Amino acid sequence: MWPSDMKGQQNQPVRVFLVDEDRHIRNVIAQELMRDPRTLLVGQASSYKEARKNVFLEEFDVLLIDLSIGEGQGAELLESIQIKRPEVLCIAISASENDDAAMDALKRGAVGYLVKNSWFGSYLQAVLEVANGGAAISPRVAKKIIPKIFNAAMHGENIFTHKKFESLTEREVDILKLIAQGKSTQEVASYLEISPLTVATHVKNIYGKMQVRTRAQAVRYAMLTGII
Hints:
The chain has 228 residues and is an alpha/beta fold. It has helices at residues 23-34, 48-54, 69-72, 74-84, 99-107, 123-131, 139-154, 170-180, 185-192, 196-210, 215-225; strands at residues 14-19, 39-45, 62-66, 89-94, 112-115, 136-137, 157-158, 163-164. The chain has 2 domains: 14-138, Rossmann fold, CATH 3.40.50.2300; 166-225, Arc Repressor Mutant, subunit A, CATH 1.10.10.10. The two termini are 30 Å apart.
């Protein structure tokens, strides 16, 4: 039985928008999502032009996007969505296991990277994973990129920007851990017995040091690198 405290309930399923030019792949993914009451497929696009128009009109929680759409414009669209609609969780889909392509997608804001026709994992599982705060990366790709991210972090470098970042203070790590638990600024302030303004200042400093723009990006990077 699906836990009642997780996103993806029958009365409030995770809303998904799907972008893929390949009709066969699109149908396979759509059927998998529509068979399960925990997800609701709210829209599809089969071209870059159609996707560009509809992703800013529909309301959804997770975007599954083929990076090769158009003339390889999927990554550009993914980044645009993350800037304009940062609340949307994006999962990149690709036929390539190339780790550079995966890193580029993650750098642009994706929380997942799935290789088409992989024997491991499923699109449904990936959607539910990211909707509940996780990440979804095909195993063979994850095996390639995780050591790179970890090694860079050990040398104080954010591999997503290729810049060195200053180490976080103990207080900043504490705040990041609480943010990862889903606590609001007010809740963090109450827990640590400091003012909300002080929390906001620490969060701003964390963003600056890690070269990220959102809480989700900070938490995801911190978890991948073992900071929290």
